[in-house]
Amino acid sequence: MEDRPLPRLDIKPPTRAQRDAMLANIRRLRELDERDRLARERQQVGKA
Hints:
Elements (H helix, E strand, L loop, with lengths): L15 H32 L1
């Protein structure tokens, strides 16, 4: 069994547009998360 170098994986960083889209998605998810959390807190306050 000989030592062969591993095939090089050609990994390119995401393009600017892809990165922007990804960051926008993350931001939107965070906002939805926050809205969810606030709604839950409001419900708990209403129950108390």
